[in-house]
TrEMBL record:
Identification of the protein by name: Carboxypeptidase C (Cathepsin A)
Pfam family, one: Peptidase_S10
Gene3D superfamilies, sorted: alpha/beta hydrolase
PANTHER family per UniProt: RETINOID-INDUCIBLE SERINE CARBOXYPEPTIDASE, SERINE PROTEASE FAMILY S10 SERINE CARBOXYPEPTIDASE
GO molecular function per UniProt: serine-type carboxypeptidase activity
Annotated signal peptide: 1-25
Keywords, sorted A to Z: Carboxypeptidase, Glycoprotein, Hydrolase, Protease, Signal
Database matches in InterPro entries: AB_hydrolase_fold, Peptidase_S10
Electron transport keyword on record: no
Domain of life: Bacteria
Biological process annotations from GO: proteolysis
Length: 508
């Protein structure tokens, strides 16, 4: 299978001064954490409310922020977990019924919603440079691209991520698996929507990385088990969504990502290098579909001259040598590509964002020593989130904020989330889907995302409600300043287009 299903995939995964702060409910108590499987020691049902504003596109937006926990209950009504969330609600809105609500997740599985909260759609932005690299002093600032102008947002940290915790005696199988995760979160969302009186609001899910698996499954679970119907699902750097790909298809689909990365690092032939990225990639995509997949399908019976011709084209598009490609029988492992592309320059390239460079102990070897991009991101995000929660949102606790929480083993069996999303769209004519991908993402690469979109709707009946957007960065494409602006504007436009006109029925 592709890199999507590797167990070590970790992802995928700000500030005007507070105008005033008021505690709406009991503030989180001091707590402690011990061991690899933390026990719940934070009040599972608490909230702290504060009031702020942010200027988006020149408009001052007042809002309240609620940072708190909401329980997960067992069949007897006993709290078995406290799920941490941050909810942003614009306060100068008179008609809340027509105001969209965006429900946001990140991925891993095992990471909180910190990534999109303080780097993409939320009202605060962590301190990074224009390309996403950490800078000091750590902290947060205003996010002038936030979608809070057009929608309210709740960021949810699933069990054992961020400040969310399960009880020490809670059954792990209730939380830590593809379908278990979807089931308990659908119940949680129902409670949240009821508590905050948002049943009338148009609703959207946005998930990043494994969060796209979660969001795709939730689209159907919310309809079937909670009778909650969505207007849209946004998939940021999507996984394979349980859509089968193996053999020649799996082996070939990474080539366009290789070409994008090689283009960025100026490792292609001059005639390709002088083209713009988006002018060059269609040629590679067409070769992948029309020639590479059929060639790999013939295996050892592929004509020798044809094999050499295919290897030469792959070398031209990937920046690797024909010799290396022939040695791998036309099947280049992605982790080998990260090591090989710039081996002669003494660098590796990042997995989640191949613009980032790493330095290994030795130039020899078949894969990088570490993920250069993830190390950089943790450098910036971890202190910024602690500063933000404590200083601005006034949520005080000694509980450890889990950037990567103890959620494994994770039960990945019976992943039908892509098909679930298709069923949800078929049953709900209001439901639209947008995919956002970074060209330099090597974990959930952009061409695999396109493939998933194509296979999501094999009959072609839903394609008018499916769209794909590409960005010149990686897995968290919004870390690049230009893509932060473009990505959020694409979300705004998606929301506007997916809102039905007054009186428009949901029917075919």
């Amino acid at each position: 299978m592709s890199v999507f299903n590797k167990a070590w995939m970790p992802l995928f995964m700000a500030g005007l001064t507070c105008l005033s702060s008021a505690v709406q409910a009991q503030q989180a108590p001091k707590a402690a954490i011990t061991g690899a499987n933390p026990v719940l020691s934070l009040n599972p049902d608490t909230a702290v409310t504060s009031y702020h504003d942010v200027t988006v596109k020149g408009q001052k937006i007042p809002y309240k922020a609620i940072a708190g926990t909401q329980p997960v209950w067992d069949q007897d009504g006993k709290p078995v977990a406290g799920i941490f969330y941050t909810y942003y609600e614009r306060t100068d809105v008179k008609d809340r019924a027509s105001r969209p609500l965006v429900i946001s997740f990140n991925g891993g599985p095992g990471t909180p919603s910190v990534w999109m909260q303080i780097a993409y759609t939320g009202p605060r932005l962590l301190n990074i440079d224009d390309e996403g690299y950490p800078i000091q002093p750590y902290g947060i600032r205003e996010n002038p691209q936030s979608i809070l102008d057009i929608a309210d947002i709740v960021y949810i940290d699933p069990a054992n991520t961020g400040y969310s915790r399960i009880n020490k005696d809670a059954p792990r199988e209730k939380f830590f698996g593809t379908n278990a995760d979807i089931k308990y979160l659908a119940e949680w969302i129902n409670t949240f929507v009821t508590r905050h009186n948002r049943w009338a609001s148009p609703k959207y899910l946005i998930g990043e990385s494994y969060g796209t698996t979660r969001a795709s499954g939730l689209a159907l679970e919310l309809q079937n088990a909670q009778w909650m119907y969505l207007n849209g699902v946004i998939l940021v750097s999507p996984t394979d969504l349980g859509i089968a790909r193996s053999g020649p298809v799996d082996q070939a689909l990474s080539l366009p990502y290789f070409a994008a990365t090689a283009w960025f690092h100026k490792a292609l032939a001059a005639d390709l290098q002088q083209k713009d990225l988006t002018a060059m990639l269609p040629e590679v995509e067409n070769f992948t579909i029309q020639e590479l997949i059929p060639a790999i399908s013939q295996g050892g019976f592929l004509d020798d001259q044809k094999r050499k011709d295919i290897a030469a084209r792959m070398a031209r598009y990937s920046g690797l040598s024909e010799k290396v490609i022939m040695q791998h029988n036309l099947n280049i492992p992605v982790d080998f590509f990260w090591k090989e592309l710039l081996r002669d320059r003494g660098y590796t390239v990042g997995r989640l964002d191949s613009r980032y460079l790493g330095q290994d102990r030795e130039d020899a070897g078949g894969s990088p020593d570490y993920n250069a991009e993830l190390t950089s991101w943790l450098h910036a995000f971890t202190p910024a989130m602690h500063i933000y929660l404590h200083d601005e949102l006034k949520f005080s606790t000694d509980l450890k904020y889990m950037m990567f929480g103890p959620v494994h083993p994770w039960d990945r069996s019976n992943d039908r989330t892509g098909e679930n999303l298709r069923q949800a769209m078929a049953a709900n004519p209001y439901l639209h889907v947008m995919i956002q991908s970074g060209y330099y993402d090597g974990a959930c690469d952009y061409f695999n995302a396109k493939y998933s979109m194509w296979q999501l709707d094999p009959g072609g009946r839903l394609k008018s409600r499916l769209s794909w957007k590409g960005y010149r960065s990686g897995h968290m494409m919004y870390l690049r300043k230009d893509d932060l602006a473009t990505g959020n504007e694409d979300i705004r436009e998606f929301i506007r287009k997916s809102l039905p006109k007054a009186g428009q029925p949901a029917k075919y």
